[in-house]
Automatic annotation (TrEMBL):
Keyword terms of this UniProt record: Cell outer membrane, Ion transport, Membrane, Porin, Signal, Transmembrane, Transmembrane beta strand, Transport
MF GO annotations: porin activity
Any single Pfam family the record assigns to this protein: Porin_4
GO biological process, one term: monoatomic ion transmembrane transport
Assembly with partners or alone: Homotrimer.
Protein name: Porin
CDD domains reported for this sequence: gram_neg_porins (cd00342)
Amino acid sequence: MERKQFPGVKAVLVIGASLATAAPAFAQSSVTLYGIVDNGIGYQSSSTTLGSTSGGHSTFKMITGVWAGSRFGLKGAEDLGGGTKAIFTLEEGFSANSGAMSTSNLMFSRQAFVGVTNGTYGTLTAGRQYASYYQLLSLYSPTTWLTGFYGAHPGDVDGLDTIYRANNTLLYMSPQLYGFKFSGSYSLAGVPGSVNQGSTWSAAVQYAQGPVGVAVGFSRINNSTVGGGAFGADSTTSNAGAQAGISAVTNGYQTAQAQQRFAVGAGYTFNSQFDITATYTNVQYIPGAGSAFHSEAIWNTGGIVLHWKPTAAWDFATGYSYTRATKANGITSSAQYQQFNLSEYYSLSKRTGLYALQAYQRANGQTLGTNGRSIINATATLGDGFNSTPSSSRSMVGVGVGIVHRF
């Protein structure tokens, strides 16, 4: 639900600087405190409960973490010699409106990992982190300039925003070689008698050279409940036992045995003022014996974002995406979602900015209801900021303004 690619690290506490004489080994160690606070006001034309197709009302409310999810974190590094460093990251999200944790009962819900890195051999990390699929495709995600809150593809069905973090993850990231970078990750669920049930695995490759960039990635998320059904708490993408990514798009398919995502992203920088990115994704929700739905559900999405930076202070972007589901599970008119986005950002300084966002989505066709069997009209749900409060109708308009500060 947030825009990526921030300088982010501003306040550095160098551990051992004052102890260099007594303990020289600590002179190359450091811990960095960083964070983002984002708050604003938003409007949506229709808001109802997930799964409802009636009774929606317009809302006007405070919203937090729109341009960039509010967070604080610690990053550390220690020089081990020979070009190798030990590294760690601990990062927690929070609401700037209430001070509540972004995910209840998780102290570091965004990231919590430790590992080693070497400029020649790459980086190996272990813990709660983003899978390889997201790490190498996020550069071309629509959320970079349109935000995840308003601009992620409907419901973030393809996981190009940051809502899919995987527990118990081993991830390798290669160094860049002739423009290429490779990453692979595997998340262990620890389910007795099975190395697959509840696991998540992912692989991706990226090429970036000069003005051209492209990335290809694949991920599979397995439900730890045998044969599908209620999402198991041991599933590695679990958020304190809850399933991530449930929206009006996927609500009727949350009992899947597995989810698979394939994506291609590309970008081209024309000059310092103008660049373009595009993505294509294919998402599959695969049923098992315990799933409420019986046939594989597939969503194909294509999207494009144009970014224009006319001055050092101003950034503007516009985007469009089209998502279409397959005809399955008795549906004769497949669900379709067309989304249009605009964003404006003004830098007050390197750390502080003002933003405005506008979005419109139109849904058509049919999808499955909450029980995974009944067929209902597809309803609009902008980005992933409205996953739990979608429109009760085919259309939704969203507008937001706010301020973001990085430290």
